[in-house]
Design goal:
Blueprint (H helix, E strand, L loop, with lengths): L11 H17 L4 H15 L4 E8 L2 E8 L6 E3 L3 H9 L3 E3 L17 E8 L5 E9 L7 H12 L5
Antiparallel strand pairs: 1-2, 1-6, 2-3, 4-5, 5-6
Helix pairs in contact: 1-2, 1-4
This protein binds methionine sulfoxide.
């Protein structure tokens, strides 16, 4: 596909509908995991106009910063720490409407107000990475994001 996104929709649901096939086209012919994670970050950041989008990869019992788009971020997160470490520990998606209300939230940027973190599992259901998306508005994420981001993550080939 042409390396350019086209999003005309205005509602979140419609934007995801337009973005999804474009991300699918971007990653379908590429087998390199990091290349695909990097393009997914860029597509989500600019397609959905988000504040921060990134992946943390599980390495030696820590989450280590991977491909991302947005301001610089903390590089390592321990299991159970912050929203990312909690989503990893519990192996479940976490949506936080107000990061100030989440005990132990790791504030990489004071501008971050809400977030969604979705674990990525290997075939044994072990968490190998998390997708972390931050908004500079409160309550930036809901079930629509969880559903579409889940579909997008299904496109990633885990070699
Ligand atoms: N918000 C995360 C830390 C990572 S930054 O937001 C990029 C957390 O508390 O897990």
């Amino acid at each position: 596909m042409a390396e350019e996104l086209k999003i005309n929709a205005t509602t979140k649901e419609e934007k995801y509908k337009e973005l999804y096939p474009q991300i699918k086209a971007l990653v379908s012919d590429e087998t390199d995991l990091i290349a695909n994670l990097a393009n997914i970050c860029a597509a989500l950041k600019f397609g959905m106009n988000l504040f921060w989008v990134g992946f943390y990869l599980v390495k030696n019992e820590e989450l280590v910063l991977g491909p991302f788009q947005g301001p610089v971020a903390c590089t390592r997160i321990k299991k159970g720490k912050g929203v990312c470490g909690t989503a990893w520990q519990q192996n479940k998606t976490i949506i936080v409407d107000d990061v100030n209300e989440f005990p132990g939230h790791i504030a990489c940027s004071m501008l971050s107000k809400s977030e969604i973190v979705i674990p990525i599992n290997d075939t044994n259901n072990a968490v190998i990475a998390v997708l972390d998306i931050d908004s500079d508005e409160y309550s930036g994420f809901d079930k629509t994001d969880e559903e579409w981001l889940g579909k997008i993550l299904q496109l990633i080939k885990l070699n």
